[in-house]
Each structure stands twice: as structure tokens, then as C-alpha cells.
Design goal:
One of its GO terms (molecular function) is nucleotidyltransferase activity. Its EC number is 2.7.7.4. It is an enzyme of class 2 (transferase). InterPro entries: CysN_GTP-bd, CysN_II, CysN_NoDQ_III, G_TR_CS, GTP-eEF1A_C, P-loop_NTPase, SO4_adenylTrfase_lsu, T_Tr_GTP-bd_dom. This protein is α+β, with helices and mostly antiparallel strands and about 450 residues long. The chain has three domains: about 210 residues, P-loop containing nucleotide triphosphate hydrolases (Rossmann fold, 3-Layer(aba) Sandwich); about 90 residues, Translation factors (Elongation Factor Tu (Ef-tu), domain 3, Beta Barrel); about 130 residues, Elongation Factor Tu (Ef-tu), domain 3 (Beta Barrel). The strands form five sheets. Strands 7, 8, 9, 11, 12, 13, 15 and 16 form an eight-stranded antiparallel sheet that branches. Strands 2-3-1-4-5-6 form a six-stranded mixed sheet, with helices on both faces. α5 packs parallel to α6 and α6 packs across α7. About 40% of the residues are buried.
Length: about 450
């Protein structure tokens, strides 16, 4: 007897969240404090951290070492790569991503926040909101992270002063709200001392809100992918051509969103051919229904030319196909992205050739104004781009689907990831007129 999707989803409560902030704001210390005070650290891990801290001349264990796992991170005292950690409390399970604070590693924050449902943005109470704070708030807004927590850290270094916290909270809340962040919760903490991280602080009786862990345990989780538009990117075509299965043809992959049922009428994109689902195989057995994020094999009633990168969707709810992609992007590579540049665009399981037709604007983080026609985007820039692809793409808007509304721009020469894009996502209208780009290709292979 198969269970319903509602029963399946209600059986687990998982929150994915990411930490972000400037250098030395205490992100790794906060994560270490969460792990330590929620009793999610093994004894041998604590002993290793204590030994490493002693070798560095520190009297007390440095909890940041619980997440700074790379040797270079420990030597330099900074976070370089995204550190993923799993822990659980009686109320909820968590997957956290501790992301770097250096400007040059903002690309890693994009990676960590891309699947997060909550972002914890740390601010040093002594420094207040700085440029990197605004950059991380902008990335969280662009990635449609539904919940943002402002953790004003190191309150012990400003004598736990309420006016300091109130001023920072007011400035950040106004800025994040202007970006369109739907929910902002400000919490004063000291990650080093443990104030308001897991246990309420005795030094800030003026604060009556939740601790960080209490908020993480109670914030509404909205990861029900079954409520989204049904999308199935084909990853692999299965044709065993064996004596046992002479006519078997199945299309394997992971359901990106929504629910698929046997007998449902579907469209195959970008061809637009229509057919019905004849069968669904999951874990070696035939099932009548499957939902995201299950990995399944779908069998169709008709023989249609389908290959890796095609998208199966309900016939009455299929996305439109296009070769002209307008998107907001975060440029993550050291080499700039320029108008006329030839790239590869990777969307779900499909990779196609493309040309950057235009870069209409670049976002200025200080005042959220749009700098028109910058000509290029450099590392960590956020801007608008127009891309022309060689083949049609079945691309949703990022607002409708974070899974099928996102894409990557890749350097065709060496496979380097250049840019993370969100189709249709933006903060506001571009100031000034769009410029016509000179995108004449040097050879016909790229001229489309």
C-alpha cells in the first residue's frame, strides 16, 4: 500500500540554512556554538578541536574549528570553502552551510544559499552593516531565500547595549525589505559566550525574542516541492534491448518539482510532442505516482525522439520554450563576463551553446541603483544579462521554480563556471535605456 505525498512529507521536518557575513563576524563560531550547545558534537571531535586550539596558543577550545575543516582554513583562521554540517534536535533536523565571508569567496555563498530556506546573516556589533553584509542580503534576496535572520554578533564587546542592536537592526531591515526579502528576524547574540544562541542571555533582559536555535526550530518550512509545477529533466535514456525486455524504453532522472501520475498527458520539450505516461518505475518496482525529489524512470505510451536534457511536463502546464534568456546573475569567476562572449548555458540536465547579447545593468549595492550598460561583469558583480542560446530551452521563471528557473554560464574552453543565473529575477527596473550589443560571431557555428 503506497502512502500519499502529504504523509510522506509530514514524516520528516528538515531545514536547510546557510550562514553568511563579513570576515571575522563569527560565522564559524556561531555554527560551532550551535553544534556544541545542542550536543551534536562527538567527544573525539571536541578533543581534536581542544588539541588544535592548544597548539595555536588558545586557552579555550575554538569552536570555529568544528566547521573550518580545510588545512588552509585552520592556518589562516578564515573560511574558504562551504562547510556543510548535519545536526538534529528533538524538534527538527538541520543541514547547515557555513559560507565564507571574504569578498573573493562570495561565489561560495551563492552555492550555499541556492538550496537554503533560511539565511543567517551575521553582523559585528562594532562595525554594523558593511558592503559585504549588503552583498549577502542581495544574494539571499535574488535566490529567493524565504527567511533571513540578522544575527548581531559580539554584543559582549559593546556591553550588550540595546541602542547598538536597535540601530543595526533598523538599518539592515530597511535595506533587506527594499530588496524584497519577505521575512527578517533580528537577534542579538554573542557566539563566543553563547548568548541567545541556544540558551537565552542573562545579559540582555531587554530582548524578549527567540534564541537562534529556537527560531530555527520553529520557523515555517516551505520545501514542499510537490506543490510546484511538475518538471522532469531527462538524465538518461534506458534501452536494455535484452531478451527479457526487448521493447523497454524508459527515461531516467530526478523529478525536479511536482507530481507525476500514470495515465497523465505530458509534453516533451523542446520538441513539444504530446503523449501519456504509460508507467513509472521507482526502486525496481512499478508505481502509480511519483513526486519530487524522487529519482525514477518514466515510460511513455509513444516512441518519441527524447534525449538527455529534454524536459517532461504536464501538457496543460508546460513552460514556454525560448532562445532569448533575460536574467539576473551573480558573476562568480575571476575572469569577467563581457558582451559578445561565447559561453555554454547549463539548465538542469541540458547544456547548450550561447552568446551574451547584452549586459543592460549592474547593481550598485550601496543604494540599490542600476548602473546602465557596464559592458562587463567582474567577480562578485550582480547584474542583468541577455543571453541568446543555440537551441530552445524550457525555462521557468526563478520566481515560479528555483530548480528549473536557474542556470549556469560556463566557459567552453575549460569548463569553468562563470555565472549563476536566475531567469526573470530582478530587484527593480533598469535605470536608463538598454543598449544594443554588437554580438557578431566570428564563425557561423556560434552565430544564432
Amino acid at each position: 500500500m503506497s502512502i500519499t505525498t502529504t504523509e510522506q512529507l509530514s514524516a520528516t521536518t528538515l531545514l536547510r540554512f546557510a550562514t553568511a557575513g563579513s570576515v571575522d563576524d563569527g560565522k564559524s563560531t556561531l555554527v560551532g556554538r550551535l553544534l556544541h550547545d545542542s550536543k551534536s558534537v562527538l567527544t573525539d571531535q571536541l578533543e581534536a578541536v581542544a588539541l588544535a586550539s592548544t597548539n595555536r596558543g588558545q586557552e579555550a577550545p575554538d569552536l570555529a574549528l568544528l566547521t573550518d575543516g580545510l588545512r588552509a582554513e585552520r592556518e589562516q583562521g578564515i573560511t574558504i570553502d562551504v562547510a556543510y554540517r548535519y545536526f538534529a534536535t528533538p524538534r527538527r533536523r538541520f543541514i547547515l552551510a557555513d559560507t565564507p565571508g571574504h569578498v573573493q569567496y562570495t561565489r561560495n555563498m551563492v552555492t550555499g544559499a541556492s538550496t537554503a530556506e533560511l539565511a543567517v546573516v551575521l553582523v559585528d556589533a562594532r562595525n554594523g552593516v558593511v558592503e559585504q553584509t549588503r552583498r549577502h542580503a542581495a544574494v539571499a534576496a535574488l535566490l529567493r531565500v524565504p527567511h533571513v535572520v540578522l544575527a548581531v554578533n559580539k554584543m559582549d564587546l559593546v556591553d550588550y547595549a540595546e541602542p547598538v542592536f536597535a540601530a543595526i537592526a533598523e538599518e539592515f531591515t530597511a535595506y533587506a525589505a527594499s530588496l524584497g526579502v519577505p521575512e527578517i528576524t533580528a537577534i542579538p547574540i554573542s557566539a563566543l559566550a553563547g548568548d541567545n544562541v541556544v540558551e537565552p542571555s542573562a545579559h540582555m533582559d531587554w530582548y524578549g525574542g527567540p534564541t537562534v536555535l529556537e527560531h530555527l526550530e520553529t520557523v515555517p518550512v516551505s520545501h514542499d516541492l510537490t506543490a510546484c509545477h511538475a518538471r522532469f529533466p531527462v538524465q538518461y535514456v534506458i534501452r536494455p534491448q535484452s531478451a527479457e525486455h526487448p521493447d523497454y524504453r524508459g527515461y531516467a532522472g530526478q523529478i525536479a518539482a511536482g507530481v507525476f501520475r500514470v495515465g497523465e498527458t505530458v509534453s516533451v520539450l523542446p520538441s513539444g510532442r504530446t503523449t501519456t505516461i504509460e508507467g513509472i518505475d521507482a526502486l525496481g518496482e512499478s508505481v502509480d505516482i511519483a513526486w519530487a525529489p524522487q529519482s525514477v524512470t518514466i515510460r511513455l505510451a509513444d516512441d518519441i525522439d527524447i534525449s538527455r536534457g529534454d524536459l517532461i511536463a504536464p501538457a496543460d502546464d508546460a513552460p514556454a520554450t525560448t532562445q532569448d534568456v533575460e536574467a539576473t546573475v551573480c558573476h562568480v569567476a575571476d575572469q569577467p563576463l563581457t558582451v559578445g562572449q561565447r559561453v555554454l548555458l547549463k539548465h538542469t540536465t541540458r547544456t547548450v551553446k550561447a552568446i551574451v547579447k547584452d549586459i543592460p545593468s549592474r547593481l550598485t549595492l550601496d543604494d540599490l541603483s542600476q548602473h546602465p550598460a557596464p559592458g562587463q561583469l567582474v567577480a562578485n558583480d550582480i547584474g542583468r544579462v541577455v543571453v541568446r542560446t543555440a537551441e530552445p530551452l524550457a525555462l521557468d521563471s526563478y520566481a515560479a521554480s528555483r530548480r528549473t528557473g536557474s542556470f549556469l554560464l560556463i566557459d567552453p574552453a575549460d569548463g569553468t563556471t562563470l555565472t549563476a543565473g536566475m531567469a526573470g529575477a530582478s530587484f527593480a527596473a533598469v535605470d536608463g535605456e538598454e543598449t544594443e550589443a554588437d554580438t557578431t560571431a566570428e564563425d557561423a557555428e556560434w552565430d544564432f
